[in-house]
Write a sequence for this structure.
């Protein structure tokens, strides 16, 4: 469900942009190179490829169940040649260096490093990530890993036999598909540092642009009893399980109930309250489709204007939810209201 919140927000963004006539290329990375995949494969006597394929299929299924469409998927393992090329290019530009066979991002060489996450240079010196003796700075990040084994390695005459870290994996997809410059990049708030910070620094170095990405957005975490909802903490709720109890419209309405940048504390009671709104919307849409009784609003499209105002105010979904509630209570939906439901991914 934590991932679902992120997916559904960007589905809303894409739907709104497409409704406004924009041509949207929506790409989601599939991380199929990861030490955790190797550990899982070893535990179950499978190959890393089989484990990756299994979880990828589960992801595709969950997205379909949620009604998320219009996405292209990029498996990072398909971009290894680009990863090798970019690692060498970053070293050549002086933004990365080789140490004991690994390649690290030299964060001191990136002037903007820390701005996205609002971390000062002084604090960065105390950020101890990817621990290794001899690093130029504790904050330097691993890009090409030859030290660890994850079931397979990729050979390179210069870099050595290894694999790209997540920072280099995602960079490779971005450069291959968008040449390193595009409009919007997003994810959960826990990706701001170090992951998105490292991506931005690498892109600035490679493109020589101050803003290779026009907009970075981050979705607040879904919380459970004060902790982030995640598999590693054992408090994750599978999408398929929650959808056995509630329909996907209710889940979409629930995620509208808090601003996307804020943390959302999971609450079944809050979800249950939105079942009432879901039923009311379903009832009036059913009546409209049966009787054709749609409120006239072509000459004064206040509903759509109000909706777009909320969206353009940094996706004020709380305002949108209040608007839906008012229209449902009035019981006189317009054609614009039905169009808004489609943009919101609400299927009645």
């Amino acid at each position: 469900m934590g991932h679902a919140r992120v997916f559904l927000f960007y589905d809303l963004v894409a739907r709104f942009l497409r409704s406004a006539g924009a041509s949207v290329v929506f790409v989601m990375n599939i991380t199929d190179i990861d030490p955790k995949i190797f550990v899982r494969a070893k535990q179950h006597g499978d190959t890393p490829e089989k484990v990756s394929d299994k979880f990828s299929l589960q992801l595709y299924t969950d997205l379909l169940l949620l009604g998320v469409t219009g996405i292209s998927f990029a498996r990072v393992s398909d971009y290894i040649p680009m990863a090798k090329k970019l690692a060498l290019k970053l070293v050549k530009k002086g933004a990365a260096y080789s140490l004991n066979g690994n390649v690290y991002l030299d964060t001191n060489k990136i002037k903007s490093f820390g701005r996205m996450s609002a971390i000062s240079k002084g604090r960065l010196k105390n950020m101890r990530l990817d621990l290794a003796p001899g690093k130029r700075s504790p904050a330097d990040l691993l890009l090409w890993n030859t030290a660890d084994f994850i079931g397979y390695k990729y050979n390179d005459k210069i870099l050595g036999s290894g694999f790209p870290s997540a920072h280099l994996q995602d960079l490779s997809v971005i450069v291959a598909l968008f040449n390193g410059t595009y409009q919007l990049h997003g994810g959960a708030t826990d990706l701001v540092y170090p992951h998105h910070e490292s991506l931005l620094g690498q892109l600035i170095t490679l493109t020589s642009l101050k803003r290779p990405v026009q907009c970075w957005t981050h979705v607040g975490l879904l919380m459970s009893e004060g902790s982030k909802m995640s598999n590693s903490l054992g408090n994750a709720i599978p999408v398929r399980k929650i959808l056995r109890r509630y329909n996907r419209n209710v889940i979409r309405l629930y995620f509208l109930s808090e601003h996307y940048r804020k943390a959302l504390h999971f609450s079944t009671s809050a979800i249950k309250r939105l079942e009432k709104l879901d039923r009311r919307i379903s009832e009036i849409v059913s009546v409209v489709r049966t009787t054709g009784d749609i409120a006239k609003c072509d000459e004064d499209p206040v509903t759509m204007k109000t909706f777009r105002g909320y969206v353009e105010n940094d996706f004020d979904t709380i305002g949108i939810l209040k608007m839906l509630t008012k229209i449902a209570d009035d019981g006189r939906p317009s054609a614009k209201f039905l169009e808004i439901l489609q943009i919101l991914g609400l299927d009645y």
The longest helix spans residues 268-291. The two ends are 22 Å apart (CA to CA).
